[in-house]
Amino acid sequence: MRNKILSLILSVAMVTTMLVGCGEGSTTDKSTVSDSAQTADSANVNGKKSAKGKTVGLAMPTQSSERWISDCANMKEQFEKQGYKVIAQFAEDDVQNQVSQVENMIAQNVDCLVIAAVDSSALVNVEKQAKDAGIPIIAYDRLLMDTDAVSYYATFDNKGVGVAIGKYIEEKKDLKVAQKEGKSYTIEFFMGSPDDNNALFLYNGIMEVLEGYLKDGTLVCKSGRTSFDDTCILRWSQDTAQANCENYLTGFYAKEKLDIVCSAFDGFSYGCKSALEGAGYSVGKDWPLITGQDADLMAVKNIISGYQTMSIYKDTRLLAEKCVKMVQAVLEGKEPEINDTNQYNNGVKTVPSYLCTPVPVDKDNYKKVIVDSGYYTEEQLSK
């Protein structure tokens, strides 16, 4: 009998000890237990951990362009709303700086990398480091070349941007009529950086529309610089665009006016504006048609004042949203939304992509497209 009582006492003691151990540092409130169970359930969907609370590294090219500042801010805001931690860094167009920043993010064990590259082909080694560490990579707006480490690509339809610029020139200068009547217009080209894969896509889109007019003389490029190699501008440099434009105006347009500045970037358009003003051109008199891309705040102001004719509006809020959803899907073990599986071969693999649609904006539609959508306010544009 004594042994039975002793055994009963020991059993009660063991159960009590187990209960105290389980409750240490926690609460036994029913709602907490329920919440914990729900958290555990939501954290394991088909055996995959939830992306909530994870860290995303944003490697951006530069803060010298308003566009990249907006992209980073949009993504950071949307990621943080979803519960992610964000490490965001700008490389200031320095390749080695970006390599070091990405290496640092890998060392901090980020769960996913979003990279908008300074040089699309210069990150191969650090991308391999990420892959070896099990960190997925999303290419943001600039395709990462020569690597199998990139999982997906979020961008705008870059060839579509070029086609839109080409068609705008075709329509505004009525090139089909000019072709029939034997009229011609002078044109010079300012294309994107050779280390950015998007730049070639954009150039090809422009030439898809304009090449025939160059061949039959409807469009005349007096500098003779029409190939991508002859017109590309390293690192999208505004200063180089201005210097090139100044040289063209001095060397080829002393006696004849330049009619069209085919610019692939708003920054180039600013440089060309300065060159044209220096050469004595004036708005309303002999100012050429000037294109652009990104619809920066200054570009839209220039469109309103007549210093720039058009730009390509790329709603970075939408691109950021698509990228955030892409990262979420990857970290949750799901398939992200994709609408292109053919165009973007990086030399190693064809990268599944989501392409957002670009929209041309000018003086006639900027209010409807940009102001009404809340991208900029009338107050911002009037300052």
Give the SSE map.
Layout: H1 2-23, H2 30-42, E1 44-45, E2 48-49, E3 55-60, H3 66-81, E4 85-90, H4 95-107, E5 112-115, H5 124-132, E6 137-140, E7 150-156, H6 158-172, H7 175-181, E8 185-190, H8 197-215, E9 219-220, H9 228-231, H10 238-252, E10 260-263, H11 266-278, E11 289-290, H12 297-305, E12 310-313, H13 316-331, E13 353-356, E14 359-362, H14 366-371, H15 378-382
Parallel strand pairs: 3-4, 3-5, 5-6, 6-7, 7-13, 8-9, 8-10, 10-11
Antiparallel strand pairs: 1-2, 12-14
Region (Disordered): 26-52
Biased composition (Polar residues): 26-47
Signal peptide: 1-22
Structure description:
It is a single chain. With 383 residues, the protein is an alpha/beta fold. The protein folds into 2 domains: 49-156 and 315-356, Rossmann fold (3-Layer(aba) Sandwich), CATH 3.40.50; 159-314, 3-Layer(aba) Sandwich (Rossmann fold). 48% of the residues lie in helices and 15% in strands. It is built from 15 helices and 14 strands. The chain has helices at residues 2-23, 30-42, 66-81, 95-107, 124-132, 158-172, 175-181, 197-215, 228-231, 238-252, 266-278, 297-305, 316-331, 366-371, 378-382; strands at residues 44-45, 48-49, 55-60, 85-90, 112-115, 137-140, 150-156, 185-190, 219-220, 260-263, 289-290, 310-313, 353-356, 359-362. The protein has a 6-stranded parallel β-sheet with strand order 4-3-5-6-7-13, sandwiched between helices. Strands 9-8-10-11 form a 4-stranded parallel β-sheet, with helices on both faces. Helix 8 links the parallel strand 8 (185-190) and strand 9 (219-220). Helix 4 (95-107) runs parallel beside helix 5 (124-132) and helix 6 (158-172) runs parallel beside helix 8. The longest helix has 22 residues, at 2-23. The protein is elongated. 40% of the residues are buried. Residues 1-49 have low confidence and may be disordered.
